[in-house]
Each structure stands twice: as C-alpha cells, then as structure tokens.
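A reminder from the course coordinator: this example appears on the midterm review sheet, so study it carefully.

Given structure:
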C-alpha cells in the first residue's frame, strides 16, 4: 500500500463488497476494517491515523463511545471527513464536526425506493391484517374469516410527515392505490409539497383527517417524541400508524396505550428506541402491530447503492471536489484547507 494513501476506517458491520472493490480499483485509498470487539486503544490507534471515518447510521450498530462527538473529535486531528452508511446521521454530532472543520456526507436516497416499498407493504399489511392472519392461522382454529376482516386503502387518506426522497415515493405509490395524500414538511413550501404529489397540511389537521399516518422525517431535537400521547389522541379513531424513519420519533408507551385502548387500529414499525426490541416489549404482544427489525432499507439493491455511493463520494471529496450529499456544506472551504495541509504532510 502506498504510504501516501488516504486511510478510510470502518467497523465490521455488513457492507456490500462493492465498497472495497471501488476503492481498490481507484487506488490511493487504504480501507481499514476494525472489529467492534477491538480494544479501545486499538480502535483509537486506527481512528487517529484515519482521514475518513465510514460510520454506521444506526445507533445500535456500534458502541456509543465510537459515535462522533466533540470529545472524540479532539482525539482525531487527522480526521477530514465522516461518511455515514445511510441517509441518517444519528451517530454524528454535526455541529461538532462543523466546528472542527470535518466534512460530513451521507447516502441520502440510496435506500429510498426500498424504504418506500416497505412502507407501502406495512400499510397494506396493517389494513388487510395479513401478518395477523398468518400468525393466527399457524396457532389457532375455530375462528371465522370475518374475525380477520380488514379494510381497503382505496379512497382513504394518507398523511405523510416529511416529504423528502422517501415520502415523495410513498406519495406516488399511494396515489396509484387510489388514496388521497396530505403532507406536512416544515422544510418545504406549499408549492413544493404539491409538486411532490401531496396536498399541504399542518400537523394537527393531518393527524385528524388521515386514515394512515406515516413518518419520514429525520431524528433531531425537533422531532424526538414528535408522536406523543397528545398527538396519538388527535389521530382518527381506528387509524394506522407507520414509522419506517427513526426510533424515538414516537413515544413507544404512548403508542402502546393508543393501540391497547383501540383508539388506533394498527401500527407498522420498522424502528425502535432499542434495536432489536426486547422479546418482552409490550408492542410485540399486540396482534395489530406488524414489526420489522430496521430492515425497510435492507435490500440487495439498496445495500449495493449505499456501498458504491459512499465509496464514490469519498473518492470525490478526497480529490477536492464537492460531494453530492454533503450534510454540512458550509464547512467545505475549511475542509479543503485541511485536505491540502494533509497532502503536504504526506509529501
């Protein structure tokens, strides 16, 4: 390996081989994979020598001490860029990176189609009680088909909270199913929401009129526990709640209460406060809940895109070019200065 190569560090979570293949073909980059069981000193030794940290987006995929914080950044003077596996960056303190001159990039859109398809699947499953029927047929007899009667989505209203890459795709498919779509997104104006296939709404009105409410917003201080007891209470009686975005956007205890009292009819959940949830988690005991293990975006196609996009973008920013998915683009000029300084130090 060329001693002048930039070093990219990642942990031993699952990656599509295309990432390593792309780096190997390009040259000039050394990809180092570290076991999560490695000692603290061992991990720090690699991180301190690394220019790019390829970090998991899912909080529970790596020990908390290796999430990017201001404290960790102080120990990593050579770090130029943090690249997240997916669209999310819950594991990265963006403000701390910006202050340190560290560029943050993500893979927004790489798994959008996969998550959108899973969202529609959860909606249909909940409405038609498919998983509930499957479970009951495997364990019980003496019930009628009408005991498992569901509802059509045709003619119903879907409320989407967050109309980005994924939410927009969900809106288009829902319209094809004959649903009306309303959306709330504080980052878009009414004209932009309409162009993306939805009728603009405020959050309270959306909750009150929608037969299905689906979350597609980031996890941050403004959205933590966005769906709490009061907001679940505002939802239409018998409505379906879907979250394929991030754990923590809904209050799990409040959702359980809304389902157990039959205020809500069903829920489709891909994300949890703790992943995977404990076997005795109360929501797992409710028949009207369809549960996934943060797998909405886990498809062969999405994983390929995530690996390839990440490698391509890292190569691009290491070449001094702006990346297509920079989370803190305002830091790019300072990043360039640090990149050039690192090149001189290797000369």
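Designed residues:
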């Amino acid at each position: 390996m060329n001693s002048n190569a930039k070093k990219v560090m990642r942990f031993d979570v699952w990656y599509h081989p295309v990432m390593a293949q792309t780096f190997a073909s390009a040259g000039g980059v050394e990809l180092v994979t570290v076991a999560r069981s490695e000692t603290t000193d061992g991990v720090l030794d690699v991180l301190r020598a690394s220019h790019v940290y390829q970090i998991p987006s899912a909080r529970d995929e790596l020990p908390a001490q290796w999430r990017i914080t201001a404290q960790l950044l102080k120990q990593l003077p050579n770090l130029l860029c943090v690249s997240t596996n997916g669209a999310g960056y819950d594991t990265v303190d963006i403000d701390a990176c910006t202050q340190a001159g560290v560029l943050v990039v993500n893979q927004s859109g790489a798994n959008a189609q996969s998550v959108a398809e899973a969202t529609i699947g959860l909606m249909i499953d909940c409405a038609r009680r498919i998983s509930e029927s499957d479970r009951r047929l495997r364990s019980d007899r003496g019930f009628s088909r009408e005991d498992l009667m569901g509802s059509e989505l045709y003619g119903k209203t879907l409320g989407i909270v967050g109309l980005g890459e994924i939410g927009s795709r969900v809106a288009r498919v829902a319209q094809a199913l004959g649903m009306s779509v309303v959306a709330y997104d504080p980052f878009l104006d009414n004209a932009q929401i309409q162009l993306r296939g939805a009728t603009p709404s405020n959050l309270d009105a959306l909750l009150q009129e929608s037969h299905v409410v689906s979350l597609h917003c980031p996890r941050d201080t403004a959205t933590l526990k966005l769906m709490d007891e009061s907001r679940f209470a505002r939802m239409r009686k018998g409505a379906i709640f879907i979250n394929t975005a991030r754990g923590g956007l809904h209050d799990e205890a409040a959702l359980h209460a809304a389902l157990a009292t039959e205020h809500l009819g069903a829920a489709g959940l891909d994300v949890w406060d703790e992943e995977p949830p404990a076997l005795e988690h109360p929501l797992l005991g409710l028949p009207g809940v369809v549960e996934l293990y943060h797998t909405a975006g886990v498809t062969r196609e999405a994983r390929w895109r995530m690996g390839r996009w990440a490698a391509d973008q890292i190569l691009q920013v290491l070449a001094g070019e702006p990346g297509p998915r920079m989370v803190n683009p305002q830091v790019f000029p300072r990043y360039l200065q640090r990149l050039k300084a690192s090149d001189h130090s290797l000369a």
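The longest strand covers residues 6-11. The two ends are 15 Å apart (CA to CA).
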